[in-house]
Design brief:
With 662 residues, the chain is an alpha+beta fold. The protein is built from 24 helices and 22 strands. β13 and β14 form a beta hairpin.
């Protein structure tokens, strides 16, 4: 395909996919099946890779995220993003109405749901999205533009747009996406998000936009903050105008003639909240007429023309029948309460999160207890308290298991965290996560063996642990969906190459608790073979720099496991290198030095620069202190550069670093 043909196809695909996205994410009216959309998106990505100069700035491929940031830049808002005064009763709302009428006469009210998400300001210049920022403290927020661009319901380009537009909305995570994300985190043994707001905030503030993109965030816009080239007279008119531009304006809003109608609609929103795909924590009453808003004005913290009503949380008693223990893929044992079914916040609840062992102990929760249950953030059922007056006589304390329910091995808690873990490397509950980590770039670097393929290989029974990777048969891999002979051969070859990664990367790949790649490299400077390390005591290990008692105990405990010995035996039999080459006359030019890396380097990524420093005896730290030797700074360095300058730490460029390497 020549450039002219490619341009036409890229133009067509961009327009078509953006239209499909608008219909799917904004109008809730999908035009094609997901598979067809994905295939078109893949075709577009391939063409853009071949002809990068033809890529549109509003290409749907932007939605998958770009390069990771070092940290977020600060943004001073053009005008403060104020919070709202809260009300907890209808009497307080009537008092608000009285104050409004005294100041400006009778007023119409726009009543809308109060979305429970993360407040952001989004700016467009001549129809192009140029910036997205968090609310922060209302005056200064964080620049999250790259993450905001991954929100598929938000247009990157507006047709018939004004010269300048700044809008305010709420980034949120839908209930279905939230439930899926928490299910995945539970399987991985990661802490669950308490509610969709917590999940949305954590996702939007990821430094890597690709992570934000995978979280499938959404947005609802509820205010025009500033506009040049259009002059709306009322709030409802401005929201209708935003919707006409393709911006997802807040739904379920109603223009009410007086406070009585407003209270009726607040009650109606309360009734529908269990059916909504976004979390809400209340409803908002706003004076509709902008002229009257100007008459009412604002306090230093909140506008006088709006107020938020907060719905009370619903709590009900039920009986705890059992406590089930699930093992995540990092080995964390997570308890779940099995309850007598109870109707709560519009749904039937029969299970509730119990977080961890300490949660059960602190609340003294016992099987057979009558417990008070509520939905955290109106989404996740959790136990609030125990009704001790209804506890059956002689009810025993709950004993947290000391054996893994998945493999029977003794579980472990090192006292540094609340989590209780199974550390058996062959525990079936952890196998997929361990395989993915083993094959990752900083570990054994098995090119092509990502999470999707690892999951497929496990699902089809071709592998059950990391060692099985080296025993894969090409014909069986080729027979898998979307593989074929070439892909299978490439995978087998990549696995073969990884056998020479060396002991340091192997130690990191094995997923030993608290042992990162830098620690593994430190260890192998003294223990250059797996046999030497297996024979080392905890006391000997703590003599190493950067290896404390917790890390030493993790290593000794790991090698004491029968599952570890079996896994290492199969790796050894497969020909995996279990030694680290000791370099004579090793380059130790950075010995005793500590580097901090910040910003984007012109020609190398920071992980490569870190590896060069570590290989030459230096350390890499994540924060600047008086002990820092150099700060290696690239573009957009952020606060680490400021801290270095304040402390008088020398700052070097990539060119300076390369000269030091010569």
């Amino acid at each position: 395909m020549n450039a002219s043909e490619a341009k036409k196809r890229i133009d067509d695909l961009t327009a078509t996919l953006n239209d499909y996205s608008y219909r799917y994410y904004v109008l809730d009216d999908p035009a094609v099946e997901d598979y067809e959309y994905d295939m078109l998106l893949r075709e577009l990505a391939g063409l853009e890779e071949q002809f990068p100069e033809l890529r549109h700035f509003d290409s749907p491929t932007v939605r998958v995220g770009g390069k990771a940031l070092d940290e977020f830049a600060k943004v001073t808002h053009a005008s403060p993003l104020q919070s709202l005064q809260d009300a907890f009763s209808f009497d307080e709302l009537r008092e608000f109405d009285r104050r409004v009428r005294e100041a400006c006469g009778e007023a119409e009210y726009d009543v809308e749901p109060k979305i429970d998400g993360l407040s952001v300001a989004v700016e467009y210049e001549n129809g192009v999205l140029v910036r997205g920022a968090t609310r922060g403290d209302g005056v200064v927020g964080e620049d999250v533009t790259q993450n905001v661009k991954t929100v598929r319901s938000l247009p990157l380009k507006l047709e018939n747009a004004p010269e300048y537009l700044r809008i305010r909305g709420e980034i949120y995570m839908s209930v279905s996406t939230f439930n899926k994300l928490n299910a995945e985190r539970e399987e991985l043994g990661e802490p669950l998000f308490k509610n969709p707001r917590n999940a949305a905030a954590g996702s939007l503030r990821q430094l890597d936009p690709k992570i934000a993109a995978k979280r499938a965030l959404d947005i609802i816009v509820f205010n025009v903050e500033e506009v040049r080239g259009y002059t709306p007279e009322s709030h409802s008119a401005s929201l209708d105008w935003l919707a006409s531009l393709g911006i997802p304006a807040i739904p379920h809003r109603k223009l009410c003639k007086n406070i009585d109608e407003a209270l009726e609609h607040i009650a109606a929103i309360g009734e529908m909240r269990d059916t909504l795909q976004f979390g809400i924590d209340g409803a908002v009453i706003k004076v509709n007429d902008f002229a009257k808003r100007r008459m009412l004005g604002s306090t230093a913290k909140a506008p006088r023309w709006a107020i938020a009503y907060k719905y009370p949380p619903e709590e009900k008693p039920t009986v705890l029948r059992d406590i089930e223990i699930q093992v995540g893929r990092t080995g964390v044992l997570t308890p779940t309460a099995v309850l007598d079914p109870v109707r709560l916040a519009g749904t039937t609840v029969s299970r509730a999160t119990m977080h961890n062992r300490d949660y059960i102990r602190e609340k003294d929760i016992r099987i057979g207890d009558t417990v008070i249950v509520r939905k955290a953030g109106d989404i996740i059922p959790e136990i609030v308290s125990v009704d001790l007056s209804k506890r059956p006589p002689l009810t025993p304390e709950y004993e947290y298991p000391d054996k893994c329910p998945a493999c029977g091995e003794t579980v472990f808690n090192d006292g540094s965290e609340v989590a209780v873990r199974c550390v058996n490397p062959e525990c079936p509950a952890q196998s997929l996560r361990n395989i993915i980590h083993f094959a990752s770039r900083d570990a054994m670097d098995i090119d092509g063996l990502g999470p999707a393929l690892a999951e497929l290989l496990v699902k089809e029974g071709l592998i059950s642990n990391a060692a099985d990777i080296y025993y894969l048969e090409k014909d069986k891999v080729a027979a898998l969906e979307r593989m074929g002979d070439t892909s299978a051969a490439n995978l087998i070859a990549a696995a073969e190459r990884s056998k020479q990664a060396g002991l340091a990367r192997l130690l990191f790949a094995l997923g030993i608790r608290n042992v990162g790649l830098q620690t593994a490299r430190t260890i192998t400077k003294k223990y250059a073979s797996i046999e030497a390390l297996e024979a080392a005591s905890a006391e000997e290990l703590t003599e190493l720099e950067d290896v404390g008692a917790v890390i030493a105990d993790s290593i000794v405990s790991f090698f004491a496991k029968e599952g570890t010995r079996h896994l290492l035996g199969r790796l050894r039999e497969a020909g995996v290198k279990m030694t680290e080459d000791v370099k004579e006359n090793a380059d130790t030019r950075f010995a005793g030095m500590t580097f901090v890396l910040t910003g984007t380097l012109p020609s190398m990524d920071r992980s490569a620069a870190s590896a060069l420093i570590i290989e030459r005896g230096g350390k890499v730290s994540g924060s600047v202190s008086k002990k820092t030797t150099y700060v290696l700074a690239g573009e957009n360095p952020g606060s680490k550069l400021t801290n270095a300058q304040a402390l008088g730490v020398p700052v070097i460029s990539e060119d300076d670093f390369k000269k030091m390497m010569e």
